[in-house]
């Protein structure tokens, strides 16, 4: 690993969206300051309650729960967050020929509670949540979020929705099995607090972004799975290194919060091992 690459990874470990009351990072355009989170939480409380009720009673699919969660925040933070998609065919190809398409029928927007139905701005003639996702471009957030949700909707991405932050070793185990976690914390959202240094909305976006990279052919998904499988199988050999707190922090980042091309993952792993051995 080059010195430059190492410095970039060091930056990524510490490049968290909320530092004090400032926002930064990949999703800065849709973040708000820490002191505004409790105020926002009160404003979106009824929508969160309605969504959690649907989720707990299995009235909607997990990917739909996540999309609605994002819409709640986008509606709160961005004046105009959605426009009609001009490249519909591009996204239609994602769900075409899916063996699970008929088994994953999407919820009708009209069947949602009124306060959630109102979130679907510029819905035009869209009747279902997936149709809206296909035909809508979301402003201020990257295209990969939309792609990830569409892939998840037809089970092309093996994603697991969790309401609490998972242990890094458990995330590593799941990645070794070809799965990825999406965290959605109703509790953190309702309190207007941070989960680590991320608010609930950004934490979910962050996980979706990682999922996209994990399953993307461009980043060699199979190679990543093999690398994480290797890490998980050799956890016992890393025990002496994990006593080094600096190595432990970097290992947690590598094993649970770093999705990239496997060659980069390997280079980073070798670099942190070499650093630790010098101590």
Structure description:
The chain has 279 residues and is mainly alpha-helical. The protein has helices at residues 3-14, 37-43, 45-56, 62-77, 88-95, 114-117, 129-135, 143-153, 168-176, 186-191, 200-215, 221-233, 245-256, 262-277; strands at residues 18-19, 22-23, 82-84, 136-138, 159-162, 180-183, 194-195, 198-199. The strands form 4 sheets. The protein has a two-stranded antiparallel ribbon with strand order 1-2. Helix 3 (45-56) packs antiparallel against helix 4 (62-77), helix 8 (143-153) packs across helix 11 (200-215) and helix 9 (168-176) crosses helix 12 (221-233).
Mean pLDDT across the residues is 91
Helix amount: 40-55%
Radius of gyration: 20 Å
Return the domain count.
1
Kindly state the number of beta strands: 8
Topology overview:
Elements (H helix, E strand, L loop, with lengths): L2 H12 L3 E2 L2 E2 L13 H7 L1 H12 L5 H16 L4 E3 L3 H8 L18 H4 L11 H7 E3 L4 H11 L5 E4 L5 H9 L3 E4 L2 H6 L2 E2 L2 E2 H16 L5 H13 L11 H12 L5 H16 L2
Parallel strand pairs: 5-6
Antiparallel strand pairs: 1-2, 3-4, 7-8
What's the short version?
The chain has 279 residues and is mainly α. It is 53% helix and 8% strand.
């Amino acid at each position: 690993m080059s010195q430059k690459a190492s410095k970039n990874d060091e930056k990524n470990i510490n490049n968290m969206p909320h530092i004090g009351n400032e926002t930064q990072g990949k999703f800065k355009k849709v973040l708000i300051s820490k002191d505004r989170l409790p105020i926002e939480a009160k404003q979106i409380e009824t929508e969160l309650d309605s969504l959690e009720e649907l989720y707990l009673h299995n009235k909607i699919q997990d990917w739909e729960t996540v999309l609605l969660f994002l819409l709640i925040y986008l509606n709160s933070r961005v004046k105009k967050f959605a426009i009609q998609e001009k490249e519909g065919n591009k996204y239609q190809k994602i769900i075409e020929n899916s063996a699970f398409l008929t088994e994953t029928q999407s919820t009708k927007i009209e069947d949602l509670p009124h306060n959630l139905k109102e979130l679907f701005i510029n819905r035009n003639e869209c009747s279902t949540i997936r149709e809206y996702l296909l035909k809508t471009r979301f402003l201020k957030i990257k295209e990969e979020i939309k792609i990830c949700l569409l892939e998840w909707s037809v089970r092309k991405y093996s994603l697991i929705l969790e309401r609490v932050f998972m242990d890094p070793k458990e995330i590593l185990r799941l990645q070794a099995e070809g799965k990825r976690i999406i965290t959605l914390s109703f509790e953190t959202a309702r309190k207007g607090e941070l989960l680590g240094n991320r608010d609930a909305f950004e934490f979910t976006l962050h996980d979706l972004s990682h999922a996209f990279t994990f399953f993307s052919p461009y980043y060699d998904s199979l190679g990543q799975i093999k690398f994480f499988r290797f890490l998980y199988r050799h956890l016992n050999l890393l025990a002496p290194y994990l006593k080094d707190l600096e190595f432990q922090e970097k290992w947690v980042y590598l094993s649970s919060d770093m999705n990239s091309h496997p060659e980069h993952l390997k280079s980073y792993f070798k670099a942190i091992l070499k650093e630790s051995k010098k101590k």
